[in-house]
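thread: overnight batch results

M.L. [08:02]
morning all. the overnight job finished for the chain we discussed friday. pasting input first so we're all looking at the same thing
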Amino acid sequence: MTLYNVETLMLKRLPQDQLEDESINAVSSFFNENGWEFNKQARDKSGIDAEIEIIHGVERTGRFLKAQVKAGSSYISSETENLLKIRLERKYLEHWAKMTAPVVLLFYHPDTHEIFWKAMKEHLALYPSILNGAGETCVIPFDKEQERLEAESLMSLEAVEAKRFSYENILMESGHSELGWSNWFLVRRFPTLWSADIGVSSTSRIAARLNRQYTFVFQPNRLLTFSDIRNEESELRNFVDTSTISPISQNEVPGPAIVELLNQALLFLAQANDLIVRGDRFYFSPTLLRTPNNNKFSYTSLKGREETRTKIYMQKLGTKIEYKHHAVRLSFLQHRGNWYLQLDPDWFFTYPYGKRPSKSEIGARITSEKANMHNKDYLYLLHSWRQFLSSGQPSIEIPCARPGDGSSVEVSATPLEFKFLFRLFNDYTGPKS
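M.L. [08:03]
and the structure it wrote out:
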């Protein structure tokens, strides 16, 4: 009889296999925790072993990045405090250079557990000589500070997918950062959401019999509202079974129903500020021109000075009189458990005399005007709109009834902020032969 050591018969997982699983889990967790979706796939001949979908809130964009994930000390050719270099098989780079899809290389550091990223097609476009060597491998460098995968990297990765990213055009100043504004404003407080059983099935049947305006929607056999229907003065009480009135958590209500309630509240905000609504675009009403003093509003500028801004400009184009209205697109969105009000400064045009241009002609006029806006113009307009909607206060109060019944959505007047490395445009690319 032959005796065998049981341990020698057991299949053992190699450390490299464990590290690969660890790296995939780390990369997957990063993207999924930041609202995007990472999907591992069988590695193909081009070395691609994952696909990353860009997701905005709850909206799938259908836009993808192809990715290869590497991990392990065996790939590292050299490393300093600021720079990491790894070796990759040349055949993969040759494939990536020819692919139409965007490709991102992700490297998981075995010691620090940090993830670094590189937009490979853009890197190869800047350094095409990499592919001219005779060896089977090529060296790919990572700047440890600038190319570490962080939440702030998502903006750059989205630019990679949109083919708007280039290493050639941007220099980053290590150790220098600047504060950036988004156009998202955090919803600080919601009013209580109320639910009650109801017998009718049409909001129009109720709205036609109301003297006031309320935010309310129907779910199967129940009415949902931000107005306190326990209050005897609430007209909505006339259409519900008052014995079933109760507060309800937002988590128990589908997101689209919450968005509909919030959009109704935006209509009340528009009415309170003499704004006309077209879709999600809000613009100042021409009736303001009847009283010249109403065509301006005061606000505190970014530099702290008291200034005024004209709401509607009157200008002559040839023989045509044109009104150029300050406008803003307003919409609510949910991201990672929080709700935000998005403010997107815009323009609108009306023509008080003669034939009115078509919808497409007005759209082209708006596009032409926005094409001339620079970042600083957008920032100034965003600031003036947040000042106008908040009346210079720390919060934007959005009423949930008209006239108000005390219920409102409180939105911070301070935009979501983020820090990023200071960027300089690199206009010099070396002497040309």
